[in-house]
Amino acid sequence: MGWYLIDGMDGCGKNTVADALSAALAKRGRSSHVHTHPSDLVTGRISRRLLRGDGKAMQAMATVFFILDVLISLARMRRWRGYDDVIFVRYIMAVAYLPDQLVERAYDLVAKALPMPEHLVLVDTPPEMAMCRIIDRGHDLEMFETVEKLSRIRQRMLRLSSKGWTVMDNSDSMEGIERQVEDYLG
Length: 186
Hints:
By secondary structure, the chain is of the alpha/beta class. The chain has one domain (2-37, 83-185): 3-Layer(aba) Sandwich (Rossmann fold). Helix content is 52%, strand content 14%. It is built from seven helices and five strands, in the order βαβααβαβααβα. Helix 5 (127-137) crosses helix 6. The two termini are 18 Å apart.
């Protein structure tokens, strides 16, 4: 089973890229299971709810529930053996939401402690574009969803992308993303 990770900041288009990847794999005769974090499990729903709060305590609790959500997903991967590929949307780059001094150490710790997908894709877009997409969804904003915070998170993610990531620019058209996915798959 191939394991792909599509990661990036809020509003960058992770689900769009995951759907394009799933479609490109299907054209190659491969079936894929797309699993998004935070998920619709209780742990994921709690994490999302906490992200709508404010303050360090809410951030810490949201992080704990996000980690639990990911661990449950890893345990459930065995059930997805009927698929050729699994695509995780959001996983390790969530460490970029931590305070700057913790980001590198948290990334390295998670990468050593948890299994890592063999295919790592970081979806990138300008923070202003991401913020417009977030607002267009019509949901309550989460604690990290401002242009300033997204700018800092983006810089952290781009810094971490040197650890074996392919960066895809999602500030173009859907055709542009589909081309990047096709190029990535070869």
